[in-house]
Write a structure and sequence with these properties.
single chain, 975 residues, alpha+beta, Phosphorylase Kinase, domain 1, Aspartate Aminotransferase, domain 2, Aspartate Aminotransferase, domain 1, 6-stranded antiparallel beta sheet, 28 helices, 39 strands, flat
Length: 975
């Protein structure tokens, strides 16, 4: 192979020339617009009919044999089903034409959008790029042609030489040294692998710049048509993937390890050999370094090349991302992802016998091989996600580990072990877009105060491992009247520099560091407690035993094992702001609720047919929370003075419907379209949402009548200026329904309505609607049921109950979700007259509804809500949050109306604010991206286009601001 040309000046061809070429070589009249290129000239041709094609003028250095090989490659791609822009023949049938000594080709115009500037790439899109690279090498695997055997600067076999040759063009000395050092380190890692890397025909430039994307149903841009075969040649097969991956790095340069998904996808379609897996990341670094060096060289020889200049920042970002982690670290991640063995795990870890004298027939006590003179018991701390010692937010204290260790030492322990490889909850961070460094690569010891102790570094059998110890000076743990710390690590000889610092690593790096390090428990006589992320195993376990109809959040779900206040924590100690759990209104892990459960379950738990204090006490507290006018006798409805307790919102709604029918002697119940009320037989009957049941409107039982939903954004009557008249018109339509029902002999028993349209995403009812609707229903002899399961209990901030917002008093109120802060409690509040009607249908009883434990939990919730001012917090933080979302709407047109009040909000996403076309696919994708950034938000509404915002009521201003920032980031960068 001859030496390739280091940079070429583009042929001198203008847009007017391109138009002349189109006429003389192809017989078409077209206007030409230049497209970017480093070494050739490319023009978009637009004919008067609107037909488009692309004209390419090759640099004279490229030979006809290379072009012939490219045409064969296009055929191979097409045969493999890979979309390509085919070359269009001239009038003489030739694919290559001549103009003033230059080779000219015209290709089909590839429809779609450029992938280069599409911002963030979702995991599925990254995987598709990897699969496309695999499809490329599979399609070209048998291609052979003399035109493929050519020397060019982008052949990764000569990449290092090219970087060295071009680096002098980089005038910034610091950048030049950075590029050369990165290339040199990568080349050193690559050198031993060269002869083992398979060679074949490859595209050589399969990048985001040479792939046109198409919008999928999920609204994302997906790679589709492959362009520009100008770098086609023989090359390392793995270079195809390396080139593709390097081009993805600038899309989210601060998270380069996400591209390993592309490696996994490639491997599924074209198995990589271990040498290729080891060579991949060094090649990514080399490619990125070459891009930077080449861009500077191109501008040096072709200063008018705006295309090359525009690429500088992105190519620098690629190199910075490629070198953000030591290459050895990423190599190990790749090996782990593909299932390749690195250094055999555990090799050479058989401990040498600890110092004599000791009875060799008896196992050495823990730590004896390290501190022979240690005298006393050993305690192992659990700093992990499920640690019982870290309850009530104690894990957030900066000195939590020190205090736990000090307590164990105070109880007489000689030493405390904080184990290797356990994701430490004590190292978790809240309100962060990136996972914290939670996984320790070492074992930590806290030794009790006392005299100096010898520290003996355990010897390992010959092998790739070594022991490192921090905290002992010259083999001695100094005398001290304070606890002393030792860190012990077992490291592979090829671990990246800095490993001696006994690092904590982020969860996505654990697969590598679990191979660079080993649990010292093997040589210290301790039990190994090492953890790795087991979420995928748990997902498979769930899928084996759960019904397909049971919902699950997220494409790639995390495994949640702890919660605290408005935060959820997965098994890697990654924290998320929880914006959807309105069940746990007080927040997760509330100590008051926990204490109430622990205390009551030890005393008594029975059923409500017995007499005990808690049932009446809790019922009285609930009634006291009603507005005064609700508790005062009313000639028509009576006072709301009776409580019936059940276990869930579905049961509460079920009971409320039964009460209405029993009290009126009628059957017909009116429910609103698009509503959700529960999953029992009766509560599902009034659930009309197509989101939960696509056939909801078709299969309602005969005793249900569905009325129009008063949604002033999407309903029959819309608008803001005439909101009062809108409410009146919806109520008038409801009145007409009541008249038709009566005329057909179906007098109404009850009308059920959420006080805020929760399933629609927190849409507030039009002014005056509920007052008018309640009046009409009562005039018709029916009862009014307020479903407060989601919106009651202070969530709206300005009132404790949602119906207070409308200025009405229902006949029946259903409550549930927040009552027990996750403990199953539900209830119905009504008048004694209505409740006593149940006697006509037999006695009422719920085995666990209203039991002492449930009531005690309910009381604890009410106490905490008052003591912690959660209703006021919902008002204040909710207003702050809504204002933040509305500010985002000023900048991001995808945000339509921002619904709701307090901490029951909904962000409606639309493709057009005038037509209100739902952005459902976008909403789902945005939720996935927000999860990556530490925010749990999910979709709701029949159209699945509303981000539902209903967090625990303890949400802080800091977390609210964090959520707004992350949503802004997603809407700015992409999803």
């Amino acid at each position: 192979m001859t030496n390739p040309q280091p940079g070429l000046v583009r042929p001198t061809v203008t847009e007017r020339d391109a138009e002349q070429i189109a006429r003389s070589c192809y017989g078409i009249d077209a206007t030409a617009q230049e497209l970017g290129s480093n070494q050739d000239r490319n023009f978009l041709l637009i004919e008067s009919t609107g037909a488009r094609s692309v004209l390419r003028i090759d640099h004279p250095v490229f030979e006809d044999a290379s072009r012939d090989a490219q045409h064969l490659a296009l055929d191979a791609y097409a045969d493999a089903g890979i979309p390509v822009a085919r070359v269009l023949a001239g009038p003489d049938g030739a694919l290559t034409q001549r103009w003033q000594g230059l080779a000219v080709r015209r290709s089909e115009f590839a429809a779609g959008e450029p992938m280069l500037d599409c911002g963030y790439l979702a995991p599925t899109v990254i995987e598709e790029f990897g699969a496309l690279a695999a499809a490329s090498v599979n399609a070209l695997a048998t291609l052979s042609h003399p035109g493929l055997d050519r020397a060019h600067m982008w052949d990764m076999r000569v990449a290092h030489d090219q970087v060295v040759a071009l680096a002098s063009s980089i005038t910034d000395a610091h950048l030049r040294r950075y590029v050369l050092d990165a290339a040199s380190e990568a080349n050193d890692l690559l050198e031993p692998l060269r002869q083992a890397l398979p060679v074949q025909a490859i595209h050589g430039d399969l990048t985001d710049d040479n792939v046109m994307g198409v919008r999928g149903e999920d609204s994302r841009l997906h790679p589709a048509t492959v362009l520009d075969f100008g770098d086609l040649s023989y090359g390392w097969r793995i270079a195809e993937l390396a080139v593709t991956i390097s081009s993805l790095l600038h899309h989210e340069p601060d998270r380069p390890l996400r591209v390993i998904r592309a490696v996994e996808a490639f491997h599924r379609q074209r198995s990589l050999e271990i040498a290729e897996a080891r060579a991949l990341w060094p090649l990514v670094v080399l490619r990125s370094a070459l891009l930077v060096a080449s861009a500077h060289r191109q501008l040096e020889i072709d200063r008018e090349n705006a295309y090359a200049e525009s690429r500088l920042a992105g190519e620098r970002a690629m190199l910075e991302a490629a070198t953000a982690h030591p290459p050895a670290e990423v190599i190990e991640l790749v090996l782990a992802a593909l299932g390749f063995q690195g250094v055999p795990h555990g090799a050479g870890l058989k401990p040498v016998a600890p110092p004599a004298p000791m009875d060799r027939s008896i196992q050495a006590p823990p730590l004896r091989s390290l501190i022979p003179d240690l005298d006393g018991g050993i305690v192992t701390l659990d700093p992990g996600v499920e640690s019982a010692a870290l309850h009530s937010g104690f894990w957030l204290e900066d000195d939590a580990e020190d205090r736990l260790a000090a307590a164990a030492l105070a109880d007489g322990a000689a030493a405390v072990v904080i184990p290797y490889g356990v994701f430490r909850l004590t190292r978790a961070e809240i309100d962060t877009a990136d996972a914290a460094r939670t996984w320790p690569s070492f074992t930590e010891l806290v030794v009790a105060p006392g005299p100096a102790l010898r520290v003996s570094i355990p010897e390992l059998q010959p092998g790739p491992w070594r022991v490192a110890i921090d905290g002992a000076s010259n083999g001695v743990l100094e005398e001290s009247d304070a606890p002393r710390r030792l860190r012990i690590a077992i490291l592979r000889a090829d671990a990246p520099p800095g490993a001696e610092q006994f690092c904590f690593v982020q969860p996505d790096l654990v697969p590598a560091w679990g191979r660079f390090t080993h649990d010292p428990a093997a040589i210290l006589g301790l039990e190994s407690l090492t953890q790795h992320d087991a979420s995928q195993d748990e997902l498979l376990r769930r899928e084996r035993i759960f019904a397909s109809a049971q919902e699950r959040y997220y494409e790639r779900p995390m495994q949640i094992e702890r919660g605290w206040r408005h935060h959820l924590i997965d098994t890697t100690a990654r924290s998320y702001v929880d914006m959807v759990n309105n069940v746990t209104a007080l927040g997760h892990g509330h100590p008051g609720v926990a204490d109430a459960v622990n205390r009551q379950i030890r005393i008594l738990n029975t059923n409500s047919r017995f007499l005990y204090r808690e049932l009446a006490e809790y019922s009285e507290r609930l009634l006291a929370l009603l507005p005064d006018e609700a508790r005062e006798p009313d000639a028509e409805r009576g006072a709301l003075d009776t409580v019936l307790l059940v276990n869930s919102g579905s049961e509460a709604v079920d009971l409320a419907l039964r009460l209405a029918q029993a009290a009126t002697g009628r059957k017909t119940v009116i429910a609103l379209r698009e509503a959700y009320h529960g999953w029992t037989m009766a509560s599902d009957a009034v659930t009309t949402s197509a989101y939960d049941n696509p056939f909801a409107l078709e299969n309602r039982p005969e005793w249900i009548h569905i009325a129009d939903v008063p949604n002033r954004f999407r309903g029959t009557y819309r608008g803001d200026a005439e909101e009062a008249s809108i409410g009146r018109r919806y109520a008038e339509d409801l009145g007409a329904d009541l008249e038709r029902l009566a005329g057909s002999g179906r007098e109404v028993a009850g009308f059920i309505c959420e006080s805020v349209l929760g399933n629609a995403g927190g849409v507030l009812l039009p002014a005056g609607y509920l007052v008018d609707a309640y009046r009409r229903v009562r005039d018709a002899g029916g009862l009014c049921i307020a479903d407060e399961v989601q919106v009651g209990f202070g969530r709206l901030g300005t009132s404790f109950w949602g119906f207070e917002q409308a200025g009405v008093i229902p006949d029946i109120i259903t409550i549930a979700k927040p009552m027990g802060n996750g403990f199953p409690i539900g209830g119905v509040i009504t008048s004694k007259r209505v409740a006593d009607a149940l006697a006509t249908q037999g006695q009422f009883f719920a085995s666990t509804g209203g039991n002492p434990l449930s009531c005690r939990v309910g009381l604890a919730v009410l106490d905490a809500m008052e003591a912690e001012g959660l209703q006021q917090n919902a008002r204040d933080v909710g207003a702050r949050l809504k204002a933040g979302f509305e500010r985002l709407a000023d900048r991001h047109p995808i945000i339509g109306p921002v619904h709701g009040e307090g901490l029951y909000l909904g962000i409606e996403l639309v493709r057009d604010r005038t037509t209100m076309e739902p952005a459902a696919a976008e909403a789902a994708a945005i939720c996935e991206r927000l999860r990556e950034l530490g925010v749990i938000v999910l979709t709701t509404s029949e159209r699945s286009n509303v981000l539902k915002i209903k967090p625990p009521l303890c949400l802080t201003s800091a977390s609210a601001d964090f959520v707004v920032r992350q949503l802004d980031r997603v809407l700015t960068e992409g999803w």
